[in-house]
Amino acid sequence: RKEVEQDPGPFNVPEGATVAFNCTYSNSASQSFFWYRQDCRKEPKLLMSVYSSGNEDGRFTAQLNRASQYISLLIRDSKLSDSATYLCVLKRGFKTIFGAGTRLFVKA
Amino acid sequence: EAGVAQSPRYKIIEKRQSVAFWCNPISGHATLYWYQQILGQGPKLLIQFQNNGVVDDSQLPKDRFSAERLKGVDSTLKIQPAKLEDSAVYLCASSLEGTGETQYFGPGTRLLVL
Questions:
Q1: Is residue B78 predicted with pLDDT exceeding 90?
Q2: B53 and chain A: CB distance < 8 Å anywhere?
Q3: Dihedral sign, CA of A88, A89, A90, A96?
Q4: Distance CA B29, CA A96 (A)
Q5: pLDDT (tens digit, 9 = 90+) per residue, A27-79?
Q6: Other residues' Cβ atoms within 10 Å of the Cβ of residue B107
Q7: Calpha distance A83→A11 (Å, rounded)
Q8: Least CB-CB distance to B42: which of A42, A87, A95?
Q9: Chain A residue with minimum CA distance to B103
Q10: Which of A56, B17, B60, B92 has the most CB atoms around it within 10 Å of its CB?
Q11: Could you report the per-residue pLDDT of B14-63, keeping only the tens digit for each?
């Protein structure tokens, strides 16, 4: 079993839609959690950190559920520019583990 | 502020040849990471340096891959000899320290082994 599991998608949604991704992790000792965004043929970039209390950045909301060992990303009012792969990332000490990513396509 | 620099951007070699990649991290960043990203997968950490010391190289195939960061700044990653399955994007990233904070990625080197 992989340490970080994501639904690969693709998720095909119309502009303006709300879409949610989940990411599950197997090691309860994982300490820090992040969502990175990766555009086609580009490098990953940090989208947001994920906290137990939840955090919001504009149209993006991230949540951590330690009891069930998953993190989530909610995107409201999807834009064409949100089309990308969303990578779930966790850190445990010095170790960094990336999920395989969830592909999102937003269509007009 | 200058970002993470990598070269070359693209490389095509034949199997059993050698190849080297170079990375210059963001100034002042103590931690440097090398990742391998195979098409359709997430980045896999190969090696992590804290200044010029290795923090984690548990997933580095040491029979063919080597990396160094001699002066705690630039780093090189070498593959010798290359195999077909080494075809991937090699990403370098840096961060201020090693735990918890943002990693900044370079544009990557796309390697094709024929």
A1: yes
A2: no
A3: positive
A4: 17
A5: 888 889 999 999 999 999 999 999 888 899 999 999 999 999 999 999 999 99
A6: 17
A7: 10
A8: A87
A9: A46
A10: B92
A11: 999 999 999 999 999 999 999 999 999 999 999 999 988 999 999 999 99
Is the CB of B25 inside 8 Å of chain A's CB atoms? no
Indicate yes or no: CB of B105 within 8 angstroms of CB of A43. yes
Q: Which of A43, A45, A97 to probe by mutation at the B interface, max B CB count within 10 Å?
A: A43
Q: Are B74 and B27 in contact (CB under 8 A)?
A: no
List chain A residues with CB under 8 Å of B98: 94
Helix, coil or strand: residue B58:
coil
Give the CA count within 13 Å in the CB-facing half-sphere of A3: 14
Residue B53: its pLDDT value, please? 92
CA angle, B17 as apex, B11 and B21 as ends, to 5°?
Answer: 40
Confidence at residue B62, expressed as pLDDT on a 0 to 100 scale: 96
Higher pLDDT, residue A51 or A81: A81
